[in-house]
Amino acid sequence: MNARIVAIEILNEGISNFFISRNSWKKTSNFTKQDRAFIRRLVYGTLRYYFEIDKIIATFLKDAKSTPDDLKNILRMGTYELVGMKTPPYAVVNEYTNIARPKFKGLVNAVLRRISEISDKVNFGSGLPEWLYDKLKKDLGDFFPLFLEKNEFHEIYLRAVNKSRDEIIKNLTDHNIESHPTRFSPWGIRCVEGIDLDGFEQFEDGTFTFQDESSQLVGIAVDPKNGERILDAFGGVGTKTTHLIQIALEAIVTYNDINKSKVSIAMDNFKRLKKFPSKILGVDVINGTLNEKFDKILVDAPCTALGTIGKHPDLLLRLNEKDIIEKAQTQLKMLEKLWEYLSDGGEIVYSVCTVTKEETDDVISKFIQNHAEAVCEDPFDGKMNFEFKGLGVQLLKWMEGFYISKIVKIGRK
Ligand SMILES: C[S@@+](CC[C@H](N)C(=O)[O-])C[C@H]1O[C@@H](n2cnc3c(N)ncnc32)[C@H](O)[C@@H]1O
Fold first, then answer.
1. Which of 150, 171, 230, 413 has the fewest CB atoms within 10 Å distance of its CB?
2. Which residues pair with 298 in a beta bridge?
3. Which residues does residue 299 pair with via DSSP β-bridges, in sequence order?
4. C-alpha triplet 260, 326, 153: angle, nearest 5°
5. CA-based Rg of the chain, rounded to a whole angstrom?
């Protein structure tokens, strides 16, 4: 099957569900490595610049609003190739015309031909919807250009788990994958060209796992010690849980997540990485009860994930202004709830892979105002030289957008 046809099928699903499932990508499994990379680039690129692409297409359609989505998706991807990838027009126009339903072939051909004539004169800009562009420009100030740059290319990061980082890098080099140690995380490996898992038995045997460098720094912030009772309150697929256990094998780590399918993936990851938490829970942190206290709690809270739009551009389609406010309110509620389960002298590490002011400094400052017995400390205890201005650390200056804060409960342990 033709790579562009599959790319369009995945895009159709992504746009109608506002989300691309893992199953969708399985459609690419019979393609060559190069074709898989091409399909990913087409789908991700079209979603990343969705709003700008639609503005360009709209100028060539009589009634863009009532144009059926399957037709628009063909035009969207064709436009991404012409403008974003600079593929020669003869290839693009014919290929997408062939994919279109018979009654739309003429229209696709005409619109893409006209777009090919202006492809050197237009560009996609930031790719963000206007409201988000204005908001982040205000929130991030001087760092806004850096945010855009970081979200343009997504590099793949690994965490060495059951072998040394040097051994893994050597092995990747033997497989012709260029990789380098990360700057701040002692376990991190940056893969320049991405890494294809097919035939890479080292993933299956738990030698490494996929994890961005920023996310690995959460492990350093929690700084688990043997014997400590630690709750990973939003364990998700278990990436950070296994990291905490990797750092302190004798720490008593409890994993929790409300989502059953995440719990099931986490269990597979515990087995694969050979790092097992002491307890596995599925409690709703807001409405449920936990029945015990912890020395440390990791609050890796659900967030708008704007630090990850490079690898999850589909989230731009789902996000609206109200979401940011709602997420921030829920994050504060979650902190309030979990505070009850923290022992005196204990620590909460709050982390979110996003950059909005509401979900980062604002959540922490509201929480601190409500609690005389809470103080913020540098989550890296001065060891990392990241800028800590009293509430938390935004890592954007050094890597992806990611925020980490440490709140200590005053009192004797
Ligand atoms: C940012 S993700 C956590 C990622 C995870 N720490 C990891 O490293 O893989 C947030 C998680 O919170 C979970 N969640 C959302 N609301 C929750 C609630 N009320 N109680 C418990 N878990 C919840 C979601 O299912 C999701 O897996």
1. 413
2. 232, 349
3. 350
4. 75
5. 23
CA of 179 to the centre of ligand 1 (A): 30
Q: How confident is the model at residue 24 (pLDDT cuts 50, 70, 90)?
A: confident
Counting atoms of ligand 1 from 1, which one is nearest the CA of 218?
Answer: 8
Q: Which domains does the chain have, with CATH numbers?
A: 3-118 (1.10.940.10), 213-409 (3.40.50.150)
pLDDT digits (tens, 9 = 90+) for 96-120: 999 999 999 999 999 999 999 998 8
Ligand 1 in reach of 284 Cβ (< 6 A): yes
Q: What are phi and psi of 348, to 5 degrees?
A: -105, 130
Which candidate, 107, 70, 78, 68, places its Cα nearest to that of 4? 78
**Residue among 397, 311, 312, 299 at smallest CA distance from 341:** 299
Task: Give the separation between CA 350 and CA 352, rounded to whole angstroms.
Answer: 7
Looking at residue 153, its pLDDT comes to 67
Residue entry with tokens 């038995």: 201
Give me the amino acid identity at 322: K
Q: For residues 128, 69, 84 and 113, what is the CA-based torsion angle, rounded to 10 degrees?
A: -140
Distance 236 CA to ligand 1 centre (A): 5
Q: Determine if ligand 1 sits within 6 Å of the CB of residue 333.
A: no
